[in-house]
Amino acid sequence: MREDLLYFIWRHNKLPTEQLCTGNGEPIVIKAPGTQNRLAGPDFFNAKVEIDGQLWAGNVEMHLKSSDWYVHHHETDENYDNVILHVVWEDDIAVFRKDGSQIPTLEVKQYVADQLLNGYQNLMNNSRTKFISCEKDVRQVDSFVMENWLHRLYIERLEHKSKLIWELLDASKNDWEAVLFMLLAKNFGSKVNGPYFMERARQLDFSIVRKTTNEPLQLEALLFGHFGLLQVDDCIDSYYLQLKKEYGYLQRKFDLDIPSSKPEFFGLRPMNFPTIRISQLVNLYAGSHNFFSKLMDLNTLEGIYQSFEICAGPYWEEHYTFGKVSKKRMKKLSKRFIDLIVINTLVPLKFCYAKHLGRDWNEDLITLVSALGKEDNSVIKNFDKIGLKAQNALESQAKLELFTNYCSQNKCMQCAIGTQLLNRNT
Asked: Name one Pfam family in it (predicted).
């Protein structure tokens, strides 16, 4: 049993309207349940409840047991002074306000239908053995409800991604170009090296990148060196030695720190080797100015693909690592890789930038992300198996949000899918 069931019961009017009484026997009539509060403070604001013939307007607090009021120290918190009703599963103790007046308590366990309780327990118990608790019944959810819920989940995912962007923007003193570079570095590092690339990018003054964009050799040396790729033992390759010499000069000039670790190669496909990705990142920025502004002005996938139509440098056509020759092949950014950049960096940045400027962001971004193919990972594959096939990147992102922040945490009663399923037969 969790408090979220109490929220569901109260929000969806699952209590008999003519039989309710407080613990002291006073009749209760619920006129309006109020608005659920998901932040700090009472659980429902602006409720209207008639108690023993007297209409009260105020807040409602909910707990599994009445005594939880004191466990959570609400008796000393002024935010709870306007609580007009305490709704609990079990009324085990009388609860009083700071002024000594008793708060009316409604014990709901005696009023909840067995059918509802059984449905809730089945939903919760399935979470231990299933991919998601509702996987057997989820296809019965109304398509309109599902579509709207996925759109809302996608916006939630954008909001979660925005937290990092706002943090980076604050740390860089509102340098949007620097934020773009850090996020791109994370993307180019992919899952294995992304955190390392991000950390190194945060430690690099972006003004140095700006100063070297017109000098390709310097920019190569700067990024290869700063990202820990110029620490190869016994390498006598002329290109490697040239980069290492140039990086030594840049270290002294800009007082750069020496990397204490290296990116990983093990377990990666050659096209994802950090050497290839850094060279591609170099060529993305070589000779480029105001890259952030250019990307913010692009609203079509065609224009975005053109902006990222780059490949690793000539040396890397016959190499994957320094000094080891391989079969000649151009190392272009794949369409799938660019799609991931759009999903994980470009759209969240556009979302934040529009908010920063006070502009409407909704329609263009939804159109853009809906035009991208769905992601390919284990979570999305599992959703496909139970009949919830993602049609595009918006739906796959929404389902990642659903799985991560709802299904995995058993927040079925905060999910539009779970609440509709529980509502069906109650």
From this structure: DUF2851
